[in-house]
C-alpha cells in the first residue's frame, strides 16, 4: 500500500503537463496559484508593451491583439484539457472491476 501512497505523493499536474507537452520532466514546480502565475506574467508583459509603444493608440491595438491571442490559447487548452480528462476517465472506467 505504501507504493500507492508514494505514487500519489509524487503526482503533480505541472510534472504531468511537462511530460505530455514536451516529453520531459518539469525541472521546477511553480507553487504559485494559477491566478498568481497568470497575473504575474500579464503584468510583466503589459509593462513591456507600454514601454515599447510610445503611441497610446498603437499600444491599445497591440494589447487587443495580444488579449485575443491569449483568449484563443485559453480556449484551445481548455478544450484539450477536457478531452484529455474525458479520455483518462474512460480508461479508468474500463479498468474498474466488473461485478
UniProtKB/TrEMBL annotation:
Protein name per UniProt: Uncharacterized protein
Phylogenetic classification of the source organism: unclassified sequences, metagenomes, ecological metagenomes
